Each structure stands twice: as C-alpha cells, then as structure tokens.
Known about the structure:
336 residues; alpha+beta; Alpha-Beta Plaits; 2 domains; four-stranded antiparallel beta sheet
Amino acid sequence: xxxxxxxxxxxxxxxxxxxxxxxxxxxxxxxxxxxxxxxxxxxxxxxxxxxxxxxxxxxxxxxxxxxxxxxxxxxxxxxxxxxxxxxxxxxxxxxxxxxxxxxxxxxxxxxxxxxxxxxxxxxxxxxxxxxxxxxxxxxxxxxxxxxxxxxxxxxxxxxxxxxxxxxxxxxxxxxxxxxxxxxxxxxxxxxxxxxxxxxxxxxxxxxxxxxxxxxxxxxxxxxxxxxxxxxxxxxxxxxxxxxxxxxxxxxxxxxxxxxxxxxxxxxxxxxxxxxxxxxxxxxxxxxxxxxxxxxxxxxxxxxxxxxxxxxxxxxxxxxxxxxxxxxxxxxxxxxx
Length: 336
C-alpha cells in the first residue's frame, strides 16, 4: 500500500568522519519537521492515487456516505426555508383592544387615528359595535336569537398588527402591556398562541433533525470503518513486514487515516451535489405555487458556512471512522 516509504528507515550512509570525542546530537527540530511534513504530503497524494486506481469501488462507497450525509443536510435546508416562510406568519400576530362600553365614537376614532401614527404598529383596524354584531351573526349561526336582544352588547374593537420589530413573542407581550394602560382600553388580548405553537413545532423539528444527523453520523463511522477494515485486511502481509523493520503503529495508521478523510470529503461533496440537485428540481414547482398565492418566496440553497460545515463534518467523520477501525485491527496484526 503506502509502505514504500519504509525505505526511509534504512540506515543512511556515512559521508563524514566523526572526530574523536565529538557528540552526535541527531537532526534538529527543523529537519525533523520537514521530514514529518514531507511524509504526510506523500501519504496524502498516495492515498488519493490508490482510491483513483479503483474508481468503481470508491464511487460506490462515497455514494453511500453521500446519502447518509445528504438526508440530514437536506432536511436542515428544508427547515431553513420553512422558517423563512413562517416569518411572514409571525408578523401577522395581532393585538385586539376592547374599548370600554359606552365610549363615544368620536373619542374612539381619535384613539384609532393616534394608534395609526405609531411606528411600532403596521396596521390599525377599527370595528364598531354594529359591524362586530353583524360579523358575529354570520359566523355564529345565532342570528335569530340575537334579534331578541334589547341592545348591542358588543364594544368598539381595535385590531392592531405590530411591525416587524415586534414579531417576536416577548416583544409583542411588552407592547401588549403598554397598550393595556391606555385609558379607553378595557382589555387587551394578544393573538399569539398559534405563533407559540408554530415555534414549538419548529424547535421539535430541529431537535429531530439533530437526532437524525447523529444517527446518520454513526452510520458514516460504521461505513468508513468497515471500508478501512477491508483495506487493512488486503495489506496484512505488508503491515507485518514494516512492523518487522521497526515501523510504529502511528506510521502504519497514517495512510489509512488519510484514506478515511478522502472518503469523508468525497461523500460530503456528493451530498452537497444531491442537495443542490434536489433544490433545482423543486425550484420551478415552488415558484409556480408562490406566484399562485402572490408571494415572493424563493427557495434558499445552502449558504457558504453550511457547505463548509458539511465538508468539515464529512472529513471529520471519515477520519474518526478510520482511526477507530485501524487502531483496533493493527494491534491484532503482529509479525510471526
């Protein structure tokens, strides 16, 4: 495999005579670092070359890894787009002000005009008692029974839509307490329970995606570990030979670790391609649906930091799976 570099273990030829009494201090730190760096550089290239020598098996293994990485990554992108779509729903949270019974219409209209000038409110709607009673008759189905009422029991109602800066639950509740203190307001109600439920659902989905990512991460470790185990078994005799000439487990482990990193990186790149291809396939139907509802919603792909995280996770899982496998199986291989 990559143990051709074991030739470096041969004793170098003596080029200069050593004077009597001179002390041999060995290579310096700089020389040791350069040797270490060149060896790593050589192993990186050689491990990649060996994977390219068997493209069929390499692509199959990377495809399996890509599927395991693409599923949680795709679900995370879907959740991000769902959160983008729900931001408009958060802004639709409303505050309903119920005015004291007997308040004069002119005073209530003045209050409504004052509220419409506030920057923290994007929409103000005034509903008088007659309009409220008519709407109640239509929705409740008690139209005949309401005819026996001597007077209209409904007060003036002002429905307020907070601006974007008050779309958060806590900010809306602070605004609610402020509006509750207005003199004409008998009761203020925040219609935000469904927003809390939506946020709770989003949190639950995020936790589910995290759990799924952890599960598939374990699957990636097992796949890479099994692949490296087969590679170790095919080079069993070579490992025995290099151990006979004094190679350490760390020296033997190194090429297999780089092989695991290449597997992880290749699987992550394929996973990225799968997610992008799925989004491109769904882009046209989503655009048509958005236009049908008069919305400007557009699918968002993976951002740069998300792609970087995916690639780093793939490489880390590939390295960790290879390290676990090679650390276990190399100890079992001993010369003789």
